[in-house]
Write a structure and sequence with these properties.
heterodimer, A: 151 residues, alpha+beta, 5 strands, 34% helix, B: 421 residues, mainly alpha, three-stranded antiparallel β-sheet, 7 strands, 5% strand
Amino acid sequence: MTISLKINGKSQDVDADPSTPLLYVLRNDVGLHGPKFGCGLGQCGACTVHVDGRPTFSCILPIAAVGDREVTTLEGLLEDGKPNKLQQAFIDEEAAQCGYCISGMVMRAQALLRTKPNPTDNEIRNYMRPNLCRCGTHTAIMRAIRRAAIA
Amino acid sequence: MRLRRVILAVLAAGVLVAVGGLAWAWRPAFAPTSAKQTISDRKMIDRGAELAAIGNCSDCHTKDVGVPYAGGRALPTPFGTIYASNLTPDLETGIGTWSEEAFRRAMHEGVDREGRQLYPAFPYDHFTKATDEDIHALYSFLMSIPAIRNVLPANQLSFPFSFRPIIAGWKVLFLSQALLEKDTSKSAEWNRGRYLVEGLGHCGSCHTPRNALGGEKKGSPYAGGAAEGWNAPPLNASLVTTHHWTVDQLAEYLSTGWHKLHGAAAGPMADVAKNLGQVSKDEVHAIAAYVASLSPSPDYKTAIITDNGGKSQPADIVAIYTGACAKCHNDRNDVGPSKALSLSLSTAVQQGDPANTVRVILHGIQSYRTGVGPYMPAFDTILTDTQIADITQYIRTRYTNQPQWADIKTEVIKARQEAQP
């Protein structure tokens, strides 16, 4: 069944079962490898993308439910093909260890900074709670978000 | 206009009660204790911590991601917003200057150290049943935790509710200080359970319906009430669903927040279960024994899984259910890392209205993330209001033999506007 999705500002037709999670379609059909498959159960946040600007687990979002909402992935945050301010802050602070969670972390943090440009540490911690990192680079992730916030 | 008449009646009753109660409204202050209390009885402190867990004190007296017991959490009531007080021994903003006598009076009579009437959002109508010995343990515990300075916002209550002396009138109607007499026809465990449930556990604060003046309806104890938008299901009618609970199942659920035949404690009950996880198994079993005894005719049938099939439903809703829900709620015996059950076992899905089902889908079950308890992601950003309403009806139709729910979308919109703990 062909379903039309709006991804990173472009309209994309995909041919898949309507119950297919958005994550699978993004990675396998559209070729966007920013969002990662972690748990597949909405527990870890590695698959986080924006749907209408809000951070969303794409592994438990069936494409039938996306409708005409705008999907943005890590790739969609690039500005003129270059990392945006937050992505650059993650690079500068060397916030990635294995890197698997980082795409999801960036997407969630970006959503936070859009609604709250200068969050407190407590607000950052609270907002980032749904996303897990197993390497333990949380302090570097905190620094990156703070750097992007005040920069 | 009916609503206005009800409000007027409530106000008039409030004023009358106030006049009647004024004579009792004035209470003396206890002198502030000059120095920080030093309590060195470790055993007593630990006992107090356990009792505080039974009383679920930290749930209200902790703000969002704030320091436990430092207060500041906004408690919405039908009469306005009340901010939970700081229970740490800070001398200025906490209870550091309270003597044990002052603390006991607050617990038993709802009056603070300075003699001001306390609002019954603080459930002293239950805590009044606590023994002096248990209050001593609680006091020892609270005085032993770190003092945190936390200046609280002023309560936002409209007149006449902002006028504290009217609370004395409320107490005349709803505060019964008589201690519980031991019922010798019942077991020691039952008596212990009753003491905890009626007293510190204050289960009736949510599970008993309230009248227009905010008092528990004495005539219908445990007939089901409300908590922060959620239904607190009745505890007196075959324990909620067609799936009856045994005492052991109830005890396991209360201790861990989950039972394989009944599902997860969610919403405000999740915090209760989290706290009861810190409590000895004997105490929790006693609570379970008493709660189970509230059902008129315990009938321990084994749960029967209902599945009416979902194929007759619109294809897009089936697709959403398959992609969003069925990965975990897969109707096999394998509950997986999220501990998800067949939805036919869910208490929420069986209830008379969709309040709890809608809220679980919107907010998920996140309370046990620091442990190994059940987990469900929040679907608030994943699905739209209409999709959540459709899925809720789909689950109701497929997994119960109960009538469909009406007006689910209105409930979704309402639930989205509530603050979550």
